């Protein structure tokens, strides 16, 4: 079995306050301050699914789809962009749902807040 992973790094503004950090009197980031984020998209396939070219799907085609999601994630504050509370959990699920129709055998979407060293993975399992 193969797993292919495509990654993108970008800056995003979540827009949510951190009541936990405030309560602990830890340095609070401004809700509009950008986070460095990494998006990882993984899909799986079997040996017998390799085509004549030696690959399952041309990842150049998927780059365009993933790049369009990154454009949406960087267009503005997530609190302004989404109708739901944009936690990393809910946004990773949203990204998965957006990509599932275009990414064959999508296995997972992972959003990593590189600024805080926290990852959230949403998977098909």
Structural class: alpha+beta
Which consecutive residue ranges, at least 5 long each, have pLDDT under 50?
A: none
Give the % helix.
25-40%
The separation of the N and C termini measures 16 Å
β-sheet strand percentage: 25-35%
What is the radius of gyration?
Answer: 16 Å
Order of helices and strands: EHEHHHEE
| Count of strand segments | 4
**Mind summarizing the main beta sheet?**
4 strands, antiparallel
Number of helices: 4
Strand order of the largest sheet: 1-2-3-4
Rounded mean pLDDT score? 85
Note the overall shape: elongated
What does this protein look like?
With 125 residues, the protein is of the alpha+beta class. The protein has four helices and four strands. The two termini are 16 Å apart.
Give a quick precis of the structure.
With 125 residues, this protein is of the alpha+beta class. Helices cover 30% and strands 29% of the residues. It has helices at 19-23, 59-74, 78-81, 88-99, and strands at residues 2-12, 35-45, 106-113, 118-123.
What are the defining features of this structure?
125 residues; alpha+beta; four-stranded antiparallel β-sheet; 30% helix; 29% strand
Strands, helices and their partners?
Elements: E1 2-12, H1 19-23, E2 35-45, H2 59-74, H3 78-81, H4 88-99, E3 106-113, E4 118-123
């Amino acid at each position: 079995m193969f797993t292919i992973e495509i990654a993108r790094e970008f800056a995003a503004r979540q827009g949510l306050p951190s009541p936990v950090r405030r309560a602990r009197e830890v340095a609070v980031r401004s809700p509009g301050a950008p986070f460095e984020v990494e998006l990882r998209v993984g899909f799986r396939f079997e040996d017998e699914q390799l085509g004549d070219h030696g690959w399952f799907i041309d990842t150049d085609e998927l780059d365009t789809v993933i790049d369009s999601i990154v454009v949406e994630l960087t267009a503005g504050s997530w609190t302004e962009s989404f109708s739901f509370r944009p936690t990393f959990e809910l946004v990773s699920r949203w990204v998965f749902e957006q990509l599932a129709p275009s990414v064959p055998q999508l296995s997972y979407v992972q959003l990593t807040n590189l600024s805080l060293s926290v990852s959230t993975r949403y998977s098909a399992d």
